[in-house]
């Protein structure tokens, strides 16, 4: 049996906010309550959006809140070679093709929406001849796409239960490396979770729909499948979703108003881990933690003076 290993994997494109901290807290409590390892990974594959300054700030914030981790934090921006090797393997297996479509062409596809920037790809570039590829490559660097099968991927989420998705119909061929050379989130996550021995992934419900793609990539790369628990989104006391733009809920503002124990205690109460608002250190919550206490519905923030 491998040691239970969890991780928190923030994308440092801004200061950590309460949604991130909730996720870090539940990931931490889940694995520490099993006596397992906790890792920190900085998901800065999108290098221009994630300056090191913000990554270092996130690490300082987590330390201030009382988090500890078992290895040096990993920076995805340092791991390009590792992602390249995984992409090469997938390419050698015939699963990858270059895509020359522009963003404007992609946005004009009339297909079910998968989020702000993603639509089911119409495979315009999926069957180009080698001559066509060579011709187009003269004027435009391609993105690299994974060809997905017409196949149901199923898994059981720790909170949300049985999930299924038909990759070709619901998601479409997706990008592993962008035309600017930056590796895509899906590939980097799968490679890093596998290489660092992650056995449980705890993250926001907004990523639930990406999981089938990651499971398929794991299978192609021969990696084991971790357990997944997607956690509810946070709302304010009125039930409105929190957004990154709510500046008063990021640590810049929060750390001036609350101690770490006040923040952790309030979040633990919002999540159902504590049944009253009181200051609590992360360590003190470990013996109290049980996924059965965490609700599936959106979690309303309590105690932050909303
Ligand atoms: N980097 C992602 C985020 O900050 C999380 C990815 C994951 O946990 O798999 O939303």
Protein model, in words:
The protein is an alpha/beta fold. It is built from 11 helices and 12 strands. The protein has helices spanning 18-32, 52-65, 80-92, 103-107, 130-137, 167-171, 185-195, 211-221, 251-257, 260-271, 282-285; strands at residues 5-8, 37-42, 74-75, 96-99, 143-146, 152-157, 161-166, 174-177, 200-204, 227-231, 234-235, 299-300. The chain has a 3-stranded parallel β-sheet with strand order 1-2-3, covered by helices on one side. Strands 4-5-8 form a 3-stranded antiparallel β-sheet. Helix 1 packs across helix 10 (260-271) and helix 7 (185-195) crosses helix 8. It is elongated. The protein starts with a strand and ends in a 6-residue tail after the last strand. Residues 9-11, 43, 189, 201, 203, 207 line the site of glutamic acid.
Helix segment tally:
11
The fraction of residues in strands falls at 15-25%
Mean pLDDT: 93
Counting DSSP E segments of at least 2 residues, the number of strands comes to 12
Unique bound compounds: glutamic acid
Gist of the model:
The chain has eleven helices and twelve strands.
Keyphrases for this structure?
34% helix, 11 helices, three-stranded antiparallel beta sheet, Glutamyl-tRNA Synthetase, domain 3, alpha/beta, binds glutamic acid, Rossmann fold, three-stranded parallel beta sheet, 306 residues, 12 strands, 2 domains
Set out the fold topology.
Layout lengths: L4 E4 L9 H15 L4 E6 L9 H14 L8 E2 L4 H13 L3 E4 L3 H5 L22 H8 L5 E4 L5 E6 L3 E6 H5 L2 E4 L7 H11 L4 E5 L6 H11 L5 E5 L2 E2 L15 H7 L2 H12 L10 H4 L13 E2 L6
Parallel strand pairs: 1-2, 2-3, 9-10, 11-12
Antiparallel strand pairs: 4-5, 5-8, 6-7
Helix pairs in contact: 1-10, 7-8
Bound molecules: glutamic acid.
